[in-house]
Amino acid sequence: MKHQLCNDIYWVGALEWSEEHFHGHELSIRHGTSYNAYFIDDEKKVLIDLVRASQSEDLFRHIEEHCPIEKLDMLIINHAEPDHASSLPKLLERNPNLEIYVSRGGKISVQRHTPGVKEVKLVKTGDSISIGKRTLRFFEAQMLHWPDTMFTYCPEEKFLFSTDAFGQHFASTERFADLVDNKGLWYEAEKYYANILTPYSPQILRKLDEFTALKWEVQTICPAHGACWRKEPEAIIGKYFDWASGKSSPTAIIIFDTIWGGTEKMARAIARGLEEKGVSYKMYSAGAADLNDVMTEILTCKAVVVGCPTLNNGIMPTLTPYLEELRGLRFRNKIGMAFGTYGWSGECIKRIEESLTNAMIEVAVEGYKCQFNPHDSDLAKCEEMGRVLADKIKAG
Ligand code: FEO
Question: 107-157: per-residue pLDDT in tens?
């Protein structure tokens, strides 16, 4: 089965159906994923990107539907994380004379990951090479998403090979975004940005500006994971601008855990306050929710509300991954609020507020703790906190 994308350009990657996590257990993936590699059948036989080592046989089989491995002339490595480039040693065993093109950062990451690679050819933004009837141009796209990341562009076909940028963890035998479950695909694109790219948003904005200033006409974006965007490829680029600039909707996410139900009652009271003011929210029980899905929701919400009882002079361990992820991801333009019950020492609010501040989330409403079981007056206070927060959310 040949996966033709246009005349002489083929997908030659591999599909991953059964993995539930990526990067060890850091990232949950619900729709599988794909490792996308592309073959251009021109006077030069060109391979763009590779696959994970465990999937090498699929890569080789797909390439050999077009050309023997030994006849490949050039390999472009847009990004050398092992999910894309760990099949390189096996490829070089079969074709040791392959010319390898990388960015400056790529030279480091390729040679650190694959010590046997002695020679690579460096390319930088604006460089181009002829492969026969077609040309390949390069754009250094650092932090979209690694320092080694570059884009490869084929002007004759208006194809952009963007490595992880604009990708989705989404396995499908269809190669184009318009042929698959659109809702699931867009969710995965957003989840990828939220959980992987958010910390680099300032650099990403600059890179997107630099890229669009080149005015390269793009008709099809071929990322390194998931489906290719051939209908309105500018839509996903526009979303990246929105996500990178911290654009949010006037909504709130409430994350909590509870021991005997008191903190949950407080969470629900805060939610009533938000509702009274017409602010939409979603509520997650920290122990039951999926961390990466919650971070995806947070990408476009305005307020992050965190609550838990004091436990062992601190917070419940179920909240720790969320607060640590918020610190690392550094979402932009968010406000926050803390709440929780306590028995006798009551450090939960202070700890949550410190964590929100460390995550660059402005504590917009003073937190509230109540001892043991919330009474009606405590719940009235929480409802009022919800209303005050709602006003701040709506004020932007
Ligand atoms: Fe950064 Fe899909 O690898």
Answer: 999 999 999 898 999 999 999 999 999 999 999 999 999 999 999 999 999
Nearest CA to ligand 1 atom 2: 164
Note the pLDDT tens digit of each residue in 15-74: 999 889 999 889 999 999 999 999 999 999 999 999 999 999 999 999 999 999 999 999
Residues 178 and 272 in one domain: no
52 within ligand 1 shell (Cβ under 6 A): no
Instruction: Check residue 2 and give its pLDDT.
Output: 63
Question: Cα(84) to centroid of ligand 1, in Å?
Answer: 7
Asked whether residue 31 is domain-assigned, the answer is yes
> Do the domain assignments include residue 396?
no
β-bridge mates for residue 33, sequence order: 16
**CATH number assigned to the domain comprising residue 102:** 3.60.15.10
Question: Could you tell me if the CB of 84 is within 6 A of ligand 1?
Answer: yes
Q: Which residues contact 292 (CB under 8 A, 6 or more apart)?
A: 27, 28, 191, 194, 195
Q: Determine the average pLDDT of the residues in 75-101.
A: 97
Ligand 1 atom with least separation from CA of 146? 1
Q: Is residue 221 part of a domain?
A: yes
pTM: 0.97
Please list, residue by residue across 66-98, b when 16 or more beta carbons sit within 10 angstroms of its beta carbon and e when fewer do. Answer: bbebeebbbbbbbbbbebbbbbbeebbeeeeeb
Note whether 51 and 160 are same-domain residues.
Answer: yes
Q: CA torsion angle for 285, 287, 291, 294 (degrees, to 10)?
A: 0
The domain that contains 291 carries what CATH number?
3.40.50.360
pLDDT tens per residue across span 348-365 = 999 999 999 999 999 999
Residues noted as catalytic:
23, 79, 81, 83, 145, 164, 192, 225
Whole-angstrom distance, CA of residue 92 vs CA of residue 98 = 7
Query: What residue numbers bound the domain in which 264 lies?
Result: 252-389
Alpha carbon of 66 to ligand 1 centroid (Å): 26
